[in-house]
Amino acid sequence: MTLAVIGGSGLYDLASTAEHGHTFTNAKTLTVATPYGDVKVKQGKFAGRELNFLCRHGASHNVPPHRINYRANIYALKQLGVTHILASNAVGGIARFAAPLTLVLPDQLIDYSWGRQHTFFDEFNHTLSHIDFTQPFDQPIREAVLKAAKGEKLLVHDGGCYACVQGPRLETAAEIRRLKNDGCDLVGMTLMPEAGLAREQGLAYASLCLSVNWAAGLYEEQLCIEEIEKTMQAAVVKFKQLLPAFISALNL
Ligand code: HPA
Asked: pTM of the entire structure?
């Protein structure tokens, strides 16, 4: 078993986890060549285990959600021998349980994104393959997150449906009303096609979502981007706190 963490918005390195007694030691940055383009992955030891760390938005956080090379990212991790992925995804909270600063472990998703390169099975040299995606997330990874949260006395809400929208703009109030009617609890821009591609490559994948604002039109007149940034930084601290306990709970 080999673990990768995919860092979303706000999670650009693991360096400051040092305050929790763990550092990303001997970390080196690899450039992994894939048929879809090159990907930078940091590889090192963290909490006593081999860990791969990939910044979803690129090393300098300049790739917007709809431009992320999701296929290259997942392919690169597969090439490195990764078997398990924990992703961090910033979201807006729709359900009452997903208030800003809450960590949520979704168990379902609905994909509203469009125009993204969303499959490895679109070339003639591949045999056509339909993956089962009834349960989009890996249960053992989810359980390790919950166990770690318990040990760290950190609240992680178990379950919820993630709506993946196209972005990069935030939603209208009516769009959020529609998502709520559809049964969505969280809204974000980056979970798909990432989760589906991981399943296509046979990788175990789960997402730990960081709620960084109430979704548009629910409780505020308008969304304040600076406020979202601040909440994101605080939520990322919680994610980092959870990580070492998660890694030992996963029993790699
Ligand atoms: N909507 C979509 N994506 C997001 C949001 C949101 O409100 N907050 C963080 N990512």
From this structure: 0.95
